[in-house]
Description:
mainly alpha, two-stranded antiparallel ribbon, 65% helix, MarR/SlyA-like, MarR family winged helix-turn-helix transcriptional regulator, HTH_MarR-typ, WH-like_DNA-bd_sf
Amino acid sequence: MTSMPVAQRLGSHIKRAEQALNAAKNTALRPSGLTVPQFGALLFLAENPGISAAALARACGVTPPTMNTVLKNLQERGLIERTPHEWHRNILETRLTAEGEKILAEADARAIRVERGLAEAFTAEERETLVSLLGRCAAFLESAEPS
């Protein structure tokens, strides 16, 4: 078996950064009563009103059952509404309510502070490079054949 030290594994560094970002966002979102997955769903819904739960799950990178739980919780809080599609009655369209828009605006202001703080840790050139490198990581991993 070929072994590689954890410190040399890119995946461990990417995961650590993702976990730290999620922890910072969870803390920032706590006053709004939202989790990071709920916030992500609201963000995508704001940009894509009427999106189906399946499409929203894909956009947020979670499984459909996970997204259904997120949407159920958001609906119980009155932050979203789900109505049957005009032509496809078995598809529910999901939209933000006025309260959902208000909570999203408050939460997004807090999340943006986290993102801006992170961005300020890098020069403009470093940010461009980081975005490019992460894009290359994603492109490779999305196209990679399982071995």
